[in-house]
Amino acid sequence: MREGDTIVMGGLITNERRQTTSRVPILSQIPILGALFRSKRFENNETELAIFLTPRILRQPASPNTIADVERIPALPSLPTNQERSSAFGAFGGTSPGGG
Which helix (H) or strand (E) holds 15? Predict the structure, then answer.
């Protein structure tokens, strides 16, 4: 993702289903004809959350305190090279993802 690009993160929060039955009191209980005096209503409500994220990099001169704080943060391990990945796949008897 580059500066200025927008990414959307979203997901379903709630899913609510309802069924309501309406009927005419005595007429709806008559066999066969009673179905004419009843009705069913189905309702499905879904709520979704979407978060739009657009990074902006603010460039300003770093103070000596900021530089010292950044130097104290442990570095992340580097990603394996193509050769290291190939040898790791070969150890399991498979082929490398690059086809080599």
Answer: strand 7-23
Residue that the structure tokens 């305190």 belong to:
65
More confident residue, 90 or 50: 50
Query: How distant, in Å, are the alpha carbons of 2, 63, 81 from that of 67?
Result: 24, 6, 29
Dist. CA 54–CA 11, nearest whole Å: 18
Whole-prediction pTM: 0.35
Residue identified by tokens 């005595």 is 26
Q: Taking CA 22 as the corner, what is the angle to CA 18 and CA 25, rounded to the nearest 5 degrees? A: 145
Return d(Cα 87, Cα 96) in angstroms, integer: 8
- CA distances 23 to 46, 69, 82, Å, are 27, 71, 70
